[in-house]
Amino acid sequence: FSGKVTSSTLGLISTIGLGLGFVIAVSSFLAAVTERRREFGIMSSIGLADEVLYFFLVESAVVFLTAFVVGVLAAGVAVALVIPGIATVTAWLQGAAVTAMFLPAMAIVGALVPVHRLLQQRPVSLLEAR
Questions:
Q1: pTM for the whole thing?
Q2: Which residue intervals of 1-130 are DSSP H helices?
Q3: Which of 10, 62, 108, 111 could form a disulfide with 56 if both were Cys (CB 3.0 to 4.6 A apart)?
């Protein structure tokens, strides 16, 4: 019984953490898009709108992969320090695998939401924005 309680509690905590991480990543990409509007306006005006999308997908993949590695390592260390009885290598690998399943979808959606908003605007309006 205690294994199920511990498993469900850790599952709930990791789901909340995954959701919050996704919201933070999307908001940071929205800020990045806002800061680089003029750059993307120039790129779009010379016909490089597809490259803007590709640029953000690659950036998103790098950011999410780095966050995944740092998050999984930090979570493993935190659980090992706080609850050493459940911190096994198998449990850590299972948690990393479950999180890794969501990684590609989160990276793509995390980049597409801000870029979609950017590409809906005309290049001229992006160039005149401050």
A1: 0.68
A2: 2-35, 37-45, 49-82, 89-119, 123-128
A3: 111
